[in-house]
TrEMBL record:
Residues in Histidine kinase/HSP90-like ATPase domain copies: 351-444
Record field: transmembrane: 63-81, 87-106, 113-132, 138-157, 164-182, 188-207
Lineage summary: Bacteria, Bacillati, Actinomycetota, Actinomycetes, Kitasatosporales
Provenance organism: Streptomyces buecherae
Protein name: histidine kinase
Key words, A-Z: ATP-binding, Kinase, Membrane, Nucleotide-binding, Phosphoprotein, Transferase, Transmembrane, Transmembrane helix, Two-component regulatory system
Entry superkingdom: Bacteria
Catalytic activity of the protein: ATP + protein L-histidine = ADP + protein N-phospho-L-histidine
Cellular component aspect of the GO annotation: membrane
Record-annotated Signal transduction histidine kinase subgroup 3 dimerisation and phosphoacceptor domain positions: 236-301
InterPro entries, per database record: HATPase_C_sf, HATPase_dom, Sensor_HK_TwoCompSys, Sig_transdc_His_kin_sub3_dim/P
EC number(s) recorded for this UniProt protein: 2.7.13.3
Enzymatic class: transferase
Region described as Disordered: 1-24, 446-477
GO function term, MF aspect, one: protein dimerization activity
Length: 477
């Protein structure tokens, strides 16, 4: 006896193809939602049709062109629909207004204008089916094609790629629908509009994407320039900090030596004083150690080479800078008055800042204005040291500069050094085409040092060894 086995039943109790259908319906719903989103969500915020930096007449040109096109198409459309197609004048007027007038919105809101013009064009195509066939273009009239192409260009310049593809496919689908509705009256205008509309949308989209790429590139360049300026500032500050470390470390070393040797140099020193000097020496050593650790961080990029450990230059080496510039072919005249030559020892930060300012200014002259006459002078008012470097305009044809663009490190370094010592600086071009660097550095620390030094017996002010040569008057600018 044979036993009949029941046929297997799907767990769900329904058709086994149900999951496939559900996935297909879900995919169709996602596509439909995407199409609706693309057609109802314009580009936000709406970018200007032209870049903000363009001239005003260029920004207003699209409004003018669409205004002229609207003024021409509006009466022509109404007249053509009434006289050429035989449509009722009232219907012709309504269709002309809805098919042409929204073009005025296309510059700023092309997607909203499309929502008015495209349905009006479709309604107009069906309305022309009610009139007898008069061998006129159908379903799209010549005015509809011209206006729709202008609208397509505005869409391409504004909307995204998915929106443009959706608009293009919808225009083709509606044209195919008209072909099915009345094959006898169709004369190929749906295909013409489909092809021309696709070309115009492609051109507009390409222009828009190119403009967006240029704008993003400009933003990246702006950010890169800001980062470059910030990096330049940090590098120059690190360099100044390394040089300042050498100055401070020297003084801390002197304090340590004096504190350690005080009990041996001063007889009958009380125990409390000996302990105080020991504490001072210990704190000085700890401070010096911390300074060296800080210097190690600043030199972690491998910048700690031998030249930076050399003694820092001062005003006594300014004449060497002038001589080196003269050998480079730049006519330099320099002036250091007697008052500056008789100054006692200046604060090392002030001397180093003055030297670096003159050094960078003369280096800029050699790089950017070779052969131009230059004047260097150091002056003093008793409380401030003045540094002036003037690069005059060349009397004859300008020589070809060694560099046409700079990194900006020099000017940033000058400002940071002046800021370090609490002075002021004025850097800028001259009216006749030259360039000037004028710095004013305070000598308050020098005045205090001179007073304290004069109290010590036999301790006279040590003069800065600055050679002086007479200089002719500065050339006329």
């Amino acid at each position: 006896m044979s036993t009949a086995h029941p046929s297997p039943v799907p767990p769900s109790g329904g058709d086994p193809r149900t999951p496939l259908r559900q996935r297909a319906r879900a995919a169709a719903r996602r596509v439909l939602r995407g199409v609706v989103h693309d057609l109802t969500t314009p580009a936000e915020p709406p970018p200007a049709p032209l870049a903000p930096g363009e001239r005003r007449w260029l920004r207003r040109l699209p409004y003018f062109l669409l205004g002229v096109l609207t003024a021409i198409l509006l009466p022509v459309t109404g007249t053509m629909l009434t006289n050429g197609y035989g449509l009722h004048p009232a219907a012709s007027g309504v269709l002309a207004l809805t098919q042409v007038t929204p073009l005025l919105l296309a510059v700023r809101r092309p997607l909203q204008a499309w929502w008015i013009i495209f349905p009006a064009d479709v309604v107009g195509g069906f309305a022309l089916l009610t009139v007898p066939d008069q061998e006129q273009p159908w379903p799209w009239t010549p005015m509809v094609i011209i206006g729709y192409l202008a609208l397509s260009l505005a869409l391409g310049l504004r909307e995204g790629r998915r929106t443009l593809v959706t608009v293009w496919l919808l225009s083709g689908a509606v044209g195919a629908l008209f072909e099915l509705v009345s094959q006898d009256r169709s004369d190929g205008t749906p295909v013409l509009l489909f092809v021309l509309g696709g070309i115009v949308l492609l051109i507009g989209g390409t222009v828009r994407e190119r403009r967006d790429a240029q704008r993003r590139l400009a933003e990246v360049e702006t950010i890169s320039e800001a980062e470059r300026a910030r990096r330049t500032l940090l590098e120059e500050r690190a360099r100044i900090a390394r040089e300042l470390h050498d100055v401070v470390a020297h003084h801390m070393s002197v304090i340590t030596v004096q504190a350690d040797s005080a009990p041996y140099r001063i007889e009958e020193l009380p125990p409390q004083a000996r302990e105080e000097f020991g504490t001072i020496a210990t704190m000085a050593r700890e401070s010096l150690t911390e300074m060296r650790r800080l210097l190690g961080v600043l030199r972690s990029d491998g910048a700690g080479n031998d030249p930076e450990r050399m003694p820092q230059p001062g005003l006594s080496r300014v004449p060497q800078l002038v001589e080196a510039t003269l050998r480079a072919g730049v006519p330099v005249e320099w002036e250091i008055p007697e008052a500056v030559s008789r100054l006692g020892p200046l604060p090392q930060a002030v001397e180093l800042s003055a030297y670096r300012i003159v050094q960078e200014a003369l280096a800029n002259v050699v790089r950017h204005a070779p052969g131009a006459p230059t004047h260097v002078s150091l002056t003093t008012t008793g409380s401030h040291l003045g540094v002036l470097v003037i690069n005059y305009a060349p009397p004859g044809p300008a020589s070809v500069p060694l560099e046409t663009a700079g990194t900006g490190h020099g000017l940033v370094g000058m400002r940071e050094r002046v800021r370090l010592v609490g002075g002021t600086v004025d850097i800028g071009p001259l009216p006749d085409g030259g360039f000037r660097v004028a710095a004013r550095l305070p000598l308050a620390a020098h005045g205090a040092g001179a007073e304290s030094g004069s109290d010590r017996p036999g301790a006279g002010p040590e003069e800065v060894d600055i050679p002086r040569t007479p200089s002719p008057p500065a050339p006329d600018g």
